[in-house]
Amino acid sequence: ALNFISRLPEGAIEFRYTMHEVIEECQHSLMFQEFINRSKTKAAKIPPWMRVGADQIAKLGFWFPELFFIFVLGGEEPIDYNQRQVLQSNHELHPLVKRIMQIHTTEEARHISFAKSFVAQRVPQLSHTKRHILRSAVPAILGIIAAIMLKPSKTVIRDFAIPDAVIKDTYHDNPEYRRQIQNAFAETTQLCRSVGLIDHRNEFIWRKHGLV
To answer: pTM to 2 decimals?
Structure first.
């Protein structure tokens, strides 16, 4: 990110966003790690394929920033939606967990807002080829990320001995889970429709991934 900042022209709107992103994401990592340390929770390691994928996604900021910010929305919105739902519910939360969620949702709001503004401004100016790539790739990207973010990982399933039937009933054959995906990505879906990334030719792909 800092290397990206060093190449920006004077007055680039990405500068302020990227600096906030670096600062706040580092603070989030410290905050989450401190909670893990104090709660003595065993955190699962990020799988190698995800590390490699994250490195490649970061490089999109140089040559295809519009696609990069789609990944940003995919990674931010499902968790942000879930945390806001929890905070607005009557579920009793540990004060520390509640405060972490409050901080996280407040600061992520800036990241999400910038990503949406960037996509709204830049996508209509793209070449036909890049818009075609986005129309084809975005629903698959959001669908895959939704599964990663909203479904329990293999580690969680193993450690808590969750039966396959429970996973199937909860996430594969459950209309409520599909509604959860649609609600989590409702604003991103509306944005994509407004900039022409959803039309009658590709809406079936969005439906296939449970996004509409």
So the answer is: 0.87
